[in-house]
Amino acid sequence: MRRRDFTQGLAFTAALMLGSSALPLPAFAQDKTITGGFDVGPGGFPKNFNPLAATAGFMWLKTYFEPLVIYNADLSALEGALAKSFTVSDDQKTYTFALVSESWHDGKPFTSADVKFTLDLARNKASGSVFAARLASIASVETPDDHTAVVTLSKADGSLLSILAQVMMLPAHALADIAPESLATSQWWSTTPIGTGPFKFSRYVTDQYVELAASDSYRGGRPKVGKLINRYFENAAAAVSALRAGEIQFTYVEPDDAKTFDGDNNFRVIKGDSYVVNYIGFNQKVDLWKDVRVRQAVMYAIDRNAIIQSLYGGAATAANCGYVAPHLVPEGLNDYAYDPEKAKALLAEAGWDKINGDKPITWLTYYGTPQAANVMAAVQAMLAQVGINVVPRVVDTPTYNGIVYKQDDPDWSQFPLVYAGLQNGPNPAGINVGLNKSQLPPAGANIMRVEFDDLSAAFDAALGETDASKVDGRWQEVCRVMNAELPWATMWVASRYGVASTKLVDFVWTPAPAGGPYADHPERWDLK
Amino acid sequence: MLIYLLRRAGVGLLMLLALSVLVFLLLRLTPGDPVSAYINPSAPISPEALAELRTRLGLDQPLPVQYLAWLRAALTGDFGYSIQRGGAAVLPLVIERIGPTALLMGCALVIAVVVGIATGIVSAVRRNSGLDVALSVIASLGVSSPAFLTALLGLYFFSVLLHIAPSGGMLTPGVPFSFGDLFAHLILPACLLSIGYLALIMRYMRASLLEVLNQDYVRTARAKGVKEFWVIVKHATRNALLPVITLIGSTIGVAIGGAIFLESVFNWPGMGLLLVNAVNSRDYPVIMCATLIIGACVIAVNLLTDLAYAAIDPRIQVAS
Hints:
The complex is a heterodimer of chains A (about 525) and B (about 325).
Chain A: H1 2-17, E1 33-37, H2 58-61, E2 69-71, E3 78-80, E4 83-88, E5 94-99, H3 112-123, E6 138-145, E7 148-153, H4 160-164, H5 172-175, H6 180-183, H7 188-191, E8 199-205, E9 209-214, E10 227-231, H8 236-244, E11 250-253, H9 255-260, E12 267-282, H10 292-301, H11 304-311, E13 316-318, H12 340-350, H13 352-355, E14 361-365, H14 370-386, E15 390-394, H15 397-404, E16 417-423, H16 432-435, H17 453-464, H18 468-485, E17 488-501, E18 504-505, E19 526-527
Chain B: H1 2-29, H2 47-57, H3 63-75, H4 90-125, H5 130-144, H6 147-161, H7 179-213, H8 216-223, H9 228-250, H10 252-266, H11 271-280, H12 284-312
């Protein structure tokens, strides 16, 4: 293979030197083919084929794999996918899934044995599964018959269904012979994976694109297009170029690029809630932020509405706690309206001069977009007005993670303050991992080392609530405590954008965190 | 000659060993590792799970142990597997990319050499004419245009605005291979990559030829009644080529750097794109292997350049 590629390269060069003078246009497929940058942007996870190792990219993975349950297209509720229905016992510890009649792409039937195989594998750390810790509450998976799977929990877990929405079912008959330890490095994922989705894996051209072919036997009907192609791009700007050139029909775009498509009849701009709350995180291991009045001063010093209007074009919602969804936000919250004088007074009361004064404070972030740079510059200027001297430091994601996740002797001075985002929906438990004291590293990702008893108690109560009618109230309590204690200076939840060609018919996309998954029904997508 | 080659090969191997140590240390000094590249900050996973991943990848071992383990395996041809790509073997992955990069660089160099030498000769022969001035201005623009600017401008004009060339990739996804399709994808990045070298070669060729044209043996050839065409082609150009060959050889390394950038802009599936991706995701095994192969190529090209001197100018001999 490699020798052939190398020889081909030399042959191409020779052919060119021999005088190919015309400039032929690229070849085009005969079948209907939808090509998109489906893994572009924060919801994508390009070049990952193993759903057990996926931390994003579920929108694409779901086109050929499927989970048991899935969010609907507006992410407001969970519905069945490979489970046509499910019931939950009164104590919220037993989940019974009634499975659909479906076949794997190789023709073998999908059964409850596959569900048990997948969930056992996903809970097994040896498989390299990133779900192992999140599925720890599962005590057993039973299969009373081929079309029923019963999941029993050791304790109630309100997040279970939302986690299961990201666990793609895997074929036991194809993978059972591979040791779990070898699965993470198996080439099966990128060469011959078998799923149950509307499209089946056709081929992967390394780092270029993945091609899927319609599955004729899909229970939702044969897809309307013959091929679905996911093209990889180095960045969103490159994908936008391909979109404008007509080479792809869809991609995620940065907010500034989205504006350039306004009024263009060839494209449809799709806007949606990012479900990521942006915040300024206070590292509780440094002495700067111990006094709540200092944290309040930060909130009062920042004119969030002005930033939302001028830098986000109004496409963001100010957050007064970790949530902005109306059913999770109680009445009577402090809105921390812009008031620099109050900020100065609070800092004076807290003795900011003695705590830090005008000494520079590193403000770490992994957000490297021009928009984020403008936002941080604006916040820096606003904080400077009240006497807080922050200095933005932008690093790439691995560097950021390397700093904030460092286990042995972390250097707190490298991240006294961060600008970051955390998934706050559709499952509101998403922010628990960053704020509950039970999630302090190494157990969890509470990287700012927040140890507020009231807040942790509120999270625990919400997570353990078994009465569905009380769940929203529990999360509202989390919101209320966050608003009062300010473990973070919550900023906003911004919109994200995708742009689709108007040639695409019945195409559904939403900027779901980690790419969802959600019921976008790719089998219905078509091209005019 | 054989001894010379063996000596150069030995020195080359030592340089590769030193390069591997240097790259290994630089990678470990860079903040973040393959596991930290794996985390989506807005949907994090527990450090406990990350620690387990690190153990599985051997990243928890002391640095000398890690390096020796890598070196031992590398000496047997096993460069490990790509962490980012979930287990794809590194060596085939890297070798697969040599062809596309060689194709892109080769085409760019051919364009640069052919057009650069031709325009350099024309410019020197028509010295101080309007054509010479025009070519010199264009060459100055070419030399001073950074690759990132020409690449992005070229992409915007020819692909986005004019739609006469694809915006990226090496082949159209989903269609059978054809030379025409490949050529359509290749021509724009190859031309853009060639601009800087073409301009440089043209200037060197012009200056070198002007110097040669003033030599006594050229005057003698003219006095003997040799036609001007043959004076230029046979007597002057051959001698004027030496510094140009030196330039081509010495800029191969720079050309690889340019190809890395072009490949990123045009999503060309070569070594450059592979390396940029690997660095962004801290894919250590891929970075090590790709760097060593690029280093080996540069060493080999420098050796070939030295040998080419002897072939072109019989007065130069390789010391044994």
